[in-house]
Recover the amino acids of this structure.
């Protein structure tokens, strides 16, 4: 390969390096921006469903802000190692929070 215009070649190399560094910066900044997660415990009351609890948490808990309620249900189910969607009265659920 013969380089006919060295200025364009060097400029192109700098643009590629800048793009790679910028992409790396975006990835690294999002990796270090996580907040510490704590858990609150809530008891299941008569008539409570996982969907109702998830809707309440989506509205009142910043941890679930901007998430689809189905994802909130799934997350609560995963955090509490639930095998199905059935809840028992006085069962205590751990809910992630910031």
């Amino acid at each position: 390969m013969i380089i006919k215009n060295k200025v364009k070649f060097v400029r192109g190399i700098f643009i590629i390096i800048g793009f790679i560094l910028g992409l790396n910066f975006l990835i690294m900044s999002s990796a270090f921006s996580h907040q510490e997660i704590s858990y609150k415990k809530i008891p299941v009351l008569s008539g409570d469903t996982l969907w109702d609890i998830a809707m309440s948490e989506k509205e009142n808990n910043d941890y679930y802000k901007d998430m689809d309620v189905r994802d909130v249900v799934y997350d609560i189910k995963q955090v509490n190692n639930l095998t199905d969607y059935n809840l028992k009265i006085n069962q205590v659920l751990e809910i992630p929070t910031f």
About this structure: Residues 59 and 65 are 7 Å apart (CA to CA). Residues 6-31 form the longest helix (26 residues). The chain has two domains: 1-34, 38-97. Residues 38-97 form a domain with the Membrane-bound Lytic Murein Transglycosylase D; Chain A fold (CATH 3.10.350.10).
